[in-house]
UniProtKB/TrEMBL annotation:
Residues spanning the membrane: none
Any coiled-coil regions, as ranges: none
Swiss-Prot/TrEMBL keywords: DNA-binding, Transcription, Transcription regulation
DNA-binding region: 60-79
The protein's name in its UniProt record: TetR family transcriptional regulator
SUPFAM superfamilies according to UniProt: Homeodomain-like, Tetracyclin repressor-like, C-terminal domain
Organism: Paenirhodobacter ferrireducens
Any one Gene Ontology molecular-function term assigned to this protein's record: DNA-binding transcription factor activity
Keyword DNA-binding (UniProt): yes
Stretches assigned to the HTH tetR-type domain: 37-97
Keyword hit for DNA-binding: yes
Gene3D superfamilies linked: Tetracycline Repressor, domain 2
Annotated Pfam families: TetR_N
């Protein structure tokens, strides 16, 4: 009976911590991670530019990879599809601010939810007016040229913002601060419309008005009108 033999690949010993070999290995690992992150950033930057210029639906994965200077294999190593890229772009621009507002809205000692909404909204408008990345992201998310998958993702992202507004406004209602003329859900709609309208018109008009100062003034007036009896904070 023939004897079966198995070829065993040589195993290179791992250098002990602190030795020159271990230091070279650690340096190699760090360099690989840095290269991978650099590739990921190139893909995101290319996608952001193409999405803003052509819309998501009219941008192909091949265009993104070519513009980023990477292979399609490298693209798929980092992202499953265009929706995953859009989600990553959102996570590095809009999501951090939303997370801060969401965390603050859950604090038990929040005594004036409407004042918090006004303060957070004013700060957001100021940051948006100076942040080109957020402006491009808003253009991308407002572009009608979307795939079904990205449209569904966008709807879910809007729901997340809606829930933050709902939570804050429900607390304002419980505290007796909110006008009786509108329900918390209706007020949430008014805020969504106001913010989207301000951003869209500011970008459409090529920044024809000061978004930070005028936006803050309009938001203050709107929040004041939502208080019971139109009273101040």
């Amino acid at each position: 009976m023939p004897v079966l033999t198995m070829k065993v690949c040589p195993v290179h010993p791992i250098g002990r911590r602190g030795t020159p070999q271990a230091e070279r290995e650690e340096h190699s690992v760090r360099r690989c991670k840095a290269d991978a992150e650099q590739t990921r950033l190139k893909i995101l930057e290319a996608a952001e530019m193409l999405f803003a210029e052509h819309g998501i639906a009219r941008t192909t994965l091949e265009q993104i990879a070519r513009t980023a200077g990477v292979t399609r294999g490298a693209f798929y190593w980092h992202f499953k599809d265009k929706t995953a890229v859009l989600s990553a772009l959102y996570e590095r621009t809009t999501a951090p601010q939303l997370a801060l507002i969401r965390e603050a809205s859950e604090q038990a000692d929040l005594t004036d939810p409407l004042a918090f909404l006004e303060c957070s909204g004013t700060r957001f408008l100021s940051v948006f007016a100076a942040d080109k990345c957020q402006q491009r992201m808003h253009r991308i998310m407002s572009n009608a040229a979307m795939t079904e998958e990205t449209a569904a993702w966008l709807a879910e992202a809007n729901v997340e913002l809606w829930r933050v507004f709902q939570r804050l406004l429900a607390r304002a209602g419980e505290a007796g601060q909110l006008t009786d003329e509108l329900t918390p859900d209706e007020v949430a709609v008014s805020l969504m419309v106001m913010f989207n309208g301000l951003l869209n018109e500011w970008l459409r008009s090529d920044r024809a008005f000061p978004l930070d100062t005028l936006g803050a003034k309009l938001l203050h007036h709107h929040i004041a009108s939502l208080r019971r009896n139109g009273g101040a904070a």
